[in-house]
Amino acid sequence: MAFNLKKKLRKSSDALAGKLDRLFGGAAIEDADLEETEEILLGSDLGWELTEKVIDELPRKVRKSGLSWKEALALILIENTPLPGFETIEARPFVTVVVGVNGAGKTTTIARLAARFQRKNEKVLMACADTFRAAAAEQLEVWADRLGTTVLTQLPGSDAAAIAFDAVKRGLSRDYDSVIIDTAGRLPNKKELLDELAKIHRVCGKAMESAPHEVLLVLDGTVGQNAKAQTEQFMKALPITGLVVTKLDGTARGGSVLAMASQLSVPVKYIGVGEGSEDLLDFNLESYVRALLGMDEAG
Ligand SMILES: Nc1nc2c(ncn2[C@@H]2O[C@H](COP(=O)(O)OP(=O)(O)OP(=O)(O)O)[C@@H](O)[C@H]2O)c(=O)[nH]1
Ligand SMILES: [Mg+2]
Description:
CATH architecture of the domain at 94-240: 3-Layer(aba) Sandwich
Number of strands: 8
Distance between the termini: 15 Å
Low-confidence stretches: none
Radius of gyration: 21 Å
CATH superfamily of the domain at 94-240: P-loop containing nucleotide triphosphate hydrolases
CATH class of the domain at 94-240: Alpha Beta
Strand order of the largest sheet: 3-2-4-1-5-6-7-8
Structural class: alpha/beta
Bound molecules: guanosine-5'-triphosphate, magnesium ion
Order of helices and strands: HHHHHEHEHEHEHEHEHEEH
Helix content: 40-55%
């Protein structure tokens, strides 16, 4: 994810590394600076735990290692962000269900996933299991036209789970490599909406025993900290296998990704750093931390 990630995260790195630069200058870190450092770290949404780790360890690390404060900070952030591992499943079609609150970036993420799969010469079927809004199907159709993929939609008011079922069946019978199912945006505290997601999940398994192979929860990176509660709520309806954090180009709160990655048992798989079809990147902790601090890629 090297390609201009640093540029894409400019707002966050200005707010984090830029401010720290002004605070420390070229000088060594003084204990007197720590309170201000703490404020800057919290302001970039790194979260309390990670911020405290940095405050505890940074001065000592700089003294002991002889690294610059920035290199030392990068190391501390990387060391203290535990990443859950995950297996990659092989299946054909590979079925992905995408969920999240309204406007988080689900449909955009699906289009960009489709574009990625296509670049690997895969045949992609997108399906719109958002039957609340007529515009939802249109939005996916516009992307499908642009990308040259197929999209399955139904009239508003029809059953969302039925569309998911049809999509997986069609994926099997027509030899698709990948089926991606869009769902309606919802607040995770509405029981009937969560029940519908559970049903979508169940019927995928009826259409193809191993499906879905991936359930992505899309989180708006500009909202930051309530990601944990949101994820736990969605988890009650269906097993989330990966997180996508979007809109990281438009926010100074890019630290939230690290907070999420360290607080949640679900891996962050992708990040969204723009509105274009290329702007969905694999999440790589080290590259992300360096870009967040306005640094170039290591080595
Ligand atoms: N800058 C930026 N904008 C993004 C990104 N991802 C999504 N957006 C924008 O966010 C807005 C909402 O995105 P959608 O993909 O429609 O969100 P959704 O979750 O499908 O929304 P609903 O279907 O209404 O729940 C759109 O204007 C997108 O262009 C991103 O990574 N960066
Ligand atoms: Mg949508």
